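Help needed: design a sequence for this.
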């Protein structure tokens, strides 16, 4: 690594500007709604997930109904299986 600071060339400056367009995060409301869920875990943050689903045009109540039906169909026999269905 050089300790001398060099001027960037016009090509490097243009490349840097072009690359920054790809690394600044989502701009649309839909993209922002999806990105808010990136670091969330299931269930404890269900309120946030519900808001994200609504922003994407989905109905949280429909999802919950489907989840309950699938959980019933799986018929968990113990806590381990029940945790797998809840995740």
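Sure. Designed sequence:
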């Amino acid at each position: 690594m050089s300790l001398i600071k060099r001027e960037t060339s016009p090509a490097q400056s243009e490349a840097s500007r072009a690359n920054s367009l790809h690394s600044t995060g989502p701009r649309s409301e839909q993209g922002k709604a999806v990105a808010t869920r990136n670091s969330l875990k299931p269930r404890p943050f269900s309120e946030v997930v519900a808001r994200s689903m609504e922003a994407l045009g989905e109905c949280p109540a429909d999802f919950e109904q489907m989840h309950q039906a699938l959980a019933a169909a799986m018929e968990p026999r113990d806590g381990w299986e029940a945790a797998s269905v809840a995740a």
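The mean pLDDT is 80.
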